[in-house]
Specification:
With 93 residues, the protein is of the alpha+beta class. It has one domain (7-34, 50-92). 44% of the residues lie in helices and 13% in strands. It is built from one helix and four strands; from the N terminus they run ββββα. The protein has one helix at residues 52-92, and strands at residues 6-7, 10-11, 22-25, 29-32. The strands form two sheets. The protein has a two-stranded antiparallel sheet. A two-stranded antiparallel ribbon has the order 3-4. β3 (22-25) and β4 (29-32) form a beta hairpin. It is rod-shaped and about 85 Å long.
């Protein structure tokens, strides 16, 4: 077997998998080049994200709900503390 020009499973010019139509896409990993195989991989469309306005609007609505819940919890906590103060005052008498 002749190993001249090969080192560790790779050719001297480029990785062995490049010779078979594969390329490294930094965002998606290793992908096979189109036309390098009889099987064509269907095009996968990138997901559509909501516009900045829609995201900002949803974020604003979520923040309003959070603030309402926080204020409600704070009022309940204050009422509970007042009740406990009253009960502790009654116990002290």
């Amino acid at each position: 077997m002749n190993n001249q020009g090969r080192q560790g499973g790779f050719s001297s010019n480029y990785p062995n998998n490049m010779a078979h139509g594969w390329r490294n896409n930094l965002n998606q990993g290793w992908k096979q080049e189109a036309g390098s195989s009889n099987k064509q991989v269907p095009y996968q469309q990138q997901p559509q994200y909501p516009s900045v306005h829609e995201r900002t609007s949803k974020l604003g609505d979520t923040f309003k709900k959070f603030m309402q819940a926080s204020l409600s919890n704070q009022k309940n906590t204050e009422a509970s503390i007042r009740n406990l103060e009253t009960q502790v005052g009654q116990l002290a008498k």
